[in-house]
Amino acid sequence: MTSEEQIVNKEVISDKQGIAMIILFLSGSTSIFVTGLDAKKDLWIAIILAIFMVLPMIILFARLHYIFPGKDLFDIFEICFGKLIGKIMMIIFTWYTFYWAADVLNNYGFFIRTVSLTKTPKIIYIIILGILCAWGTKAGIEVLGKWAELFLIIFIISICAIVSMLIPNMNFHNIEPILYDGVRPVFKGAYSVFTQPFVQTVAFTMTFTNLKRKKSSYKVYIVGLFLGAILTFMISVTNILVIGINEATNAYYPSYVTATRINIRDFIQRLEVIIAIIFTLGGFIKISILLLCTCKGMTKIFGCKDYGFIIIPITLLIVNLAYFQYDSVQHYFQFNTEIWADYFLPFQVILPVIIWIAAEIKKKLGKV
Question: Labelling 234: which of 116, 153, 156, 161 has CA 20 to 30 A away?
Answer without folding.
Answer: 116
